[in-house]
C-alpha cells in the first residue's frame, strides 16, 4: 500500500450517468467488452444485481468510471458488490485519458472510505502494474493469470510473427480437411455452443478428478442456455458465436465479445474430433482475424490459472501471460471463510486444477 495522494477527486456520482459512462468507455483504448455499459446491463439481468457504477471527475478534468454492480437486497454498505468477477469477466477503471498510479490511489482510498461489506475488483490484466503501484487501500489480493494477444500490425503480422509454425500447420490442416467455420452475432448458434459443452464437461471432469455429475452441475449452473441467450440478446452485435463444422457435425464453438478490443469467453469442444482436424486452431484464427480487421488492439484469451496445457495452447498463438491480482475490500473476513469451505470440498472429492 503506497501513498499516491497527488491526484484528487473533484466529485463522485453513482450510478454513473449513462451518457458519460458510454463516452468514457469509447475513449479508453484499453477498455475490455466486460467494462461496457451493455455488459453491466447484462450482469444485472443475469444476477439480479443493480447498477452501482461510480463516476469520478478528477481535479484535472479527467473522467474515470468504475463499473460496479451490487446486491439490491441490502443497503450499499452491507451488500456484496463487484467490478468484474462474479465469474462473469473483468472490471476495473475506465478513463478518458491514460490511467495513472495516482488515479488508482485516490479512487481506491475513496472506495475504502465507503466501507463496502465486500467489494471485488478484477481489473484489466494489461493494467496490473498501475493497480499495484497505485493501490492505497488495504485489500486482499487473489493472484490471477491471464493471456492476451497484442494485435498491432494487423493479421498478417500476427500470423507471420506471433502464431507458431505448428499452429499455422494445424490451421492449414483444418482447411485441407474441409473444416467450415460459421459466425453469427444474433444468438442463433448459442444452442450449438451449449450442445458442445457436454463434450467439454466430460474432459474437464476427467482432468480435474471431479465426479461427472458435479462437473455438469457446476458448468450448467454457471452457463445455462438461458444465460447464454441473455448475453447474446443484451450485448447485441458485440456478442458473436463461432462454430467449426466437420462433415456436418459441430466440432468446437466459442463465444467472443468484441468492441474496440475482443474477449474470448470460453470454448466448448469435442476434443476427439478437434484433435483429429485442427478445428480449434482454425476457429481461433478466424476470430483473431476478425478482431484485427475491426481495429482491435488486444485479444483477451481469459484466465489460464495453473493449467500448463491451456497456457501452452494460448502461447502458440502469440499470447503473453499476465500475472495480476483481483482485489477484495471487505469489512468482515468473508473471503477467508468461503475459501476454507471450497478447499475443504476439493480435498474431500480429490479435485485438482487442470
Give a verbal description of the structure.
This protein is globular. The strands form 2 sheets. It has an 11-stranded mixed sheet with strand order 2-5-6-8-15-9-14-13-12-11-10, with helices on both faces. Strands 1-3-4-7 form a 4-stranded antiparallel sheet. It is of the alpha+beta class. It has helices at 18-27, 37-47, 101-113, 128-134, 154-162, 165-177, 190-207, 212-222, 225-235, 271-277, 279-293, 308-315, 334-349; strands at 9-13, 50-51, 54-58, 63-66, 69-70, 80-83, 94-95, 118-121, 140-150, 180-184, 239-246, 249-258, 262-269, 298-303, 320-330. It has 2 domains: 9-144 and 324-349, Gcn5-related N-acetyltransferase (GNAT) (Aminopeptidase, 3-Layer(aba) Sandwich); 152-296, Aminopeptidase, CATH 3.40.630.30. The chain contains 13 helices and 15 strands.
Structure keywords:
single chain; 354 residues; alpha+beta; Aminopeptidase; 2 domains; 11-stranded mixed β-sheet; 15 strands
Give a quick summary of the entry.
With 354 residues, this protein is an alpha+beta fold. The chain has 13 helices and 15 strands.
